[in-house]
């Protein structure tokens, strides 16, 4: 079902390998403005291709790319290659005992299938404006700069033996902004590459991260196909750069994304009064305790105001009153409960308007949630639990999607190890 192919990556000149940590960059939405500003100061950092600045950012990225090619900053590999990518990391003590995990995967080109082909499965909706920005960048540069993250299932773990062997001789090894050890290697022996292609060809792929970037490749493929009377389906514009990991691995981790609400018309007293209908409310003396108090408890959330904090939990009998017409795999989700019973029923933001609402913000760091409420940068914070891999798979199978920003697969793949041309 899923067609992948090895590719000849554009990579930083080998003379720059010992400086690779100076050229890599994290995804734009997981770092602070201060961190981004520092990245932009380095004229060779990959952020100038992934999230360019300027009045015409896509055109500026094209010029930067052409300059880097011309002066040898980046060079193209000689052989079609599968790139092995391992990430060694630890999690906060709340989530697990201190241990090192290793998420194993590989970077490849995969056909940018339409959603209705049911080969690449999404679990979140996209925001049109963000997709349009990515399409413009792709059209100008003809380059996939950072890989999205996809999941395939293989309970025999047949590819790991080849990846384990390749990673013994890394091209790059560095530590990212979160302390994750990033190791990158390559496999270009044709007979081994073929094993990867054959293993994936009967799989469906769950898109874990990068919905906007993937959809931009999907739309770009449609545009190129329509403009090419001799289209065969084999052209490079049909493909997209993706980091594939095994969903059966115990080292696959999902972290929660909390909600911040701003510019609300309701007072704290009014919100608490409305809460009584559907939620059990428990005052909490220290907001800092909420993360642990709701951890692992179904339909339980932390609610933080400027001066008060509460643990709230949906009354079990109220679940059946949900007015949204979704399958149970979606309705059962903590975040669906939160978005319906709190954000729609209490705050008054209808489900259809929530994706584009400026009143809803997202924050992955619990401490930052507390800080932003204390600084009056948000009216309140809603502390959530992480979804599980089982829930992600069930939602994908249903054909429906989760509320926006439901999953945070940790760690994120970084940008800068390799770039993939689509021409």
TrEMBL record:
It comes from the Bacteria. This is DUF1015 domain-containing protein. The lineage of its organism: Bacteria, Pseudomonadati, Bacteroidota, Cytophagia, Cytophagales.
């Amino acid at each position: 079902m899923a067609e992948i192919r090895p590719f000849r990556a554009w990579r930083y000149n080998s003379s720059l390998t010992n400086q690779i940590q100076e050229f890599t960059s994290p995804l734009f939405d997981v770092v602070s403005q201060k961190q981004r500003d520092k990245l932009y100061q380095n004229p060779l950092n990959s952020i100038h291709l992934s999230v360019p600045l300027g009045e015409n950012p896509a055109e500026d990225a094209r010029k930067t790319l052409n300059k880097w090619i011309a002066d040898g900053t980046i060079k193209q590999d000689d052989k079609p290659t599968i790139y092995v990518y391992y990430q060694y990391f630890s999690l906060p003590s709340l989530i697990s005992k201190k241990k090192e995990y290793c998420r194993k995967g590989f970077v490849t080109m995969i056909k940018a299938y339409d959603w209705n082909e049911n080969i690449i499965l999404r679990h979140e909706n996209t925001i049109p404006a963000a997709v349009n920005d990515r399409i413009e960048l792709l059209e100008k540069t003809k380059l996939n700069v950072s890989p999205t993250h996809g999941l395939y299932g293989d309970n025999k773990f047949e590819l790991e033996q080849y990846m384990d062997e390749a990673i013994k001789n890394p091209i790059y090894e560095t530590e990212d902004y979160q302390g994750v050890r990033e190791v990158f290697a390559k496999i270009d022996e044709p007979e081994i590459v073929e094993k990867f292609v054959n293993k994936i060809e009967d799989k469906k792929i769950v898109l874990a991260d990068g919905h906007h970037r993937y959809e931009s490749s999907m739309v770009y493929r449609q545009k190129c196909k329509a403009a090419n009377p001799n289209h065969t389906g084999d052209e490079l514009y049909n493909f997209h750069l993706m980091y594939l990991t095994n969903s059966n691995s115990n080292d696959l981790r999902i972290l929660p994304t909390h909600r911040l609400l701003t510019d609300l018309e309701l007072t704290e007293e009014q919100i608490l009064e409305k809460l009584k209908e559907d939620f059990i409310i428990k005052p909490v003396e220290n907001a800092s305790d909420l993360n642990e108090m709701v951890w692992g408890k179904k339909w339980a959330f932390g609610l933080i105001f400027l001066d008060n904090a509460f643990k709230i939990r949906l009354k079990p009998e109220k679940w059946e009153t949900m007015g949204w017409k979704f399958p149970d795999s979606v309705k059962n989700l903590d975040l669906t409960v939160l978005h319906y019973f709190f954000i729609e029923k209490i705050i008054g933001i209808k489900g259809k308007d929530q994706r584009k609402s400026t009143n809803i913000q997202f924050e992955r760091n619990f401490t930052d949630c507390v800080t932003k409420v204390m600084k009056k940068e948000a009216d309140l914070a809603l502390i959530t639990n992480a979804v599980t891999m089982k829930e992600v798979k069930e939602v994908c199978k249903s054909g429906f999607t989760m509320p926006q920003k439901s999953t945070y697969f940790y760690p994120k793949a970084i940008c800068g190890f390799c770039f993939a041309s689509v021409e």
